[in-house]
Design a protein that fits this description.
membrane, 7-stranded mixed sheet, alpha+beta, 5 domains, globular, ComEC_N, Competence_DNA_uptake, 28 helices, 728 residues, transmembrane helix, cell membrane, disordered C terminus, OB fold (Dihydrolipoamide Acetyltransferase, E2P)
Length: 728
Amino acid sequence: MNAAILCLAFIAGLLSTAFVWGGYAVLSIGIVASVFVKRVWRGSPKPQVWLIAGIIGLLASLYFQMRIPQPATNDISRLIENQQQVVTVQGKITSTPRLTRSQRGQFWLLTSWLEGSKVTGKVYVTVPLLQATGLYPGQRIAVTGVLYQPSIATNPGGFDFRAYLARESTFAGLSGRRVEITEGQKSSKWGWWKIRQKIVRSQVRWLGSPEGSLVSSMVIGGKAVDLPYDIRDLFVQVGLAHALAASGFQTSLILGVMLALLRQFSLVLQVSFTGGALLLFLGLTGMQPSVLRAVVMGFAVLVAIGTKRKVKPLGSLLFAATLLLLFNPLWIWDLGFQLSFLATLGLLVTVPPLIKRLDWLPVAIATLIAVPLAATLWTLPLQLQVFGIVPLYSLVVNVLSTPLISVISIGGIVSAIASIVYPFAGSALAWLLYYPTHFLIGLIGFFAQLPGNSIAVGRISVLQLLMVYGLIILAWLQLWWQKRSWLVGVIAMGIILVPIWHSQATVFRATVLATASEPVLVIQDQGKVVLVNSGDLNTVRFTVLPFLQQQGINQIEWAIATDSETSHRSWEEINRRLPVKNFYTSTSSTERTPALANVWRSERTLIAGDTKIQINDDGLQLQIKEQTWLLLTNVGSDEQKQLVSVKKLPDAQVLWWSGETLAEEILAAVKPEVAIASTTDLSADVLSLLDRNKIQLLWTGRDGAIQWTPKEKFEATVDEAENSAAWL
């Protein structure tokens, strides 16, 4: 009991770093507990234990701050002067090159020289695919390209590249153009990467792609294999991402199979060979937090078997988590670590009572249902807080796919072992898995195509998250709540859904998203949504859809494309993920967007809730509440002057344009109070012109996404994003 309290205090201290002075709050709780807990809990540990626990919590928060990665004095990130300057960086590759979504090769480079100057630090490198072919870890190379500072999330729900790199102790990126291999170095004769490569090649040889890559992913983890992104996305979409992450499931299989095969041998041999198999598995998958957690727990089982003691699963899980967080406290905010810990906890404490409730079913079927249900119950609140989305068919898919995943994992492990010894045998064994793997992909694809396969509910707050987990823990520890689990479910759903429903029903917000080129606007009007423009396919995937998902938007009532050259693929991608009820574009775009039929041919006025939209070939005029916005897209200064001379432009409080040079005539005609530029760069002439006319400038390249509400007016999101990632 005392050890468990101290371990929990250490974890609580690390979690408290999410709040200002959180460590001191944990200390205060420990002091209060040392005084009062004994009075209400007879079997409570001694007051000294609670006091020590509070001190450990404070020290844990300080330890976390000490371990936050910081660039060294001569780190390469400190030498970035011009983000357009082409430089040559020399160093050693530290990871196996992988394929990115943009079809470039990516790897991590431990730097040593930059243009003749000695430097330190890692760099995130991307290069053309052909330049990455044949590269391997440990190789010394010189990369010529553009060195840059990683960007933060500039849109709500967007990817924070800077925080991602900081978690890897990296503070710079390199967009490479050419790779040169340093002469005179010998090829590495051994390395984990060679074994991984041998396994993957052997399994893909007869299975083909994507079946072979999928088998390898399920054996050694998705991070070690170039699984096609369309397959990876399907698994994530239906709630099966855990199947691609080598962790507890594979560890349990290794333990079970090895101990079963070695049961005729002595206890020493059983423990030794099984421990060796776990270490081999860890080496193949890499030092991933979820894998380390599973392997540490596996060794706890082996120690218990070797000493003939009873295993305490909860104690082993808590010990594994504490040990790993002592090694790297930053893993407390690693999503993979969090989900792995919660899923394992759910399996340990929730599966037995669920099987009891399902005692009217055969044990095998009851277990098949109870395992994914328990893992889902414990991980879903965190997924809602991070992603704001519910995979509707997740439980059904998990139940149906578990037998297939078990067969593929066991067969894949046997094939991997055979591949190391004799690749031909590994290929032959992998070939036997073709039909289970092919059927699994088909099953996932079927559910991914069903309507409503995932529902966006919006991200829940930290307070909601804590309240829901408090209820789950009550249902675990308190018999009264266990007997009324239905009440726990109702209250938890109320905690999650009522605030979301209230927000959706009352919110009115206009958001100009930070995009590289085409201006994009989202208007949320009491549950109804207007989307103006989509951007290119990458903008849709990495900006528009994540934002809509974070806001809990599942349908777009009005979609408007102001650019006649708009990409039909972008709109079709949006329509595939979110139904678009009404779509308006120019006549010239009609043939390229057959899936979306409503077309405006000339001037048209659209009433969208509390927003009145005037559409014409020159741009867009929006009456948002009592405020008038005028959008000008791809209109140069000469065209602006011509527009002023031939057409009476309305007075508008907000001038929104795509960053071209502004003519003074347009400002005189429109008389804006606020100017919004959707661009990554603005000329000094434009800045000077707006300053002279005392017009407030909001600029997505500097301010990130810009949000307007009737009460709060205009707000930039970059400052908020920087504050939320301040610990990095």
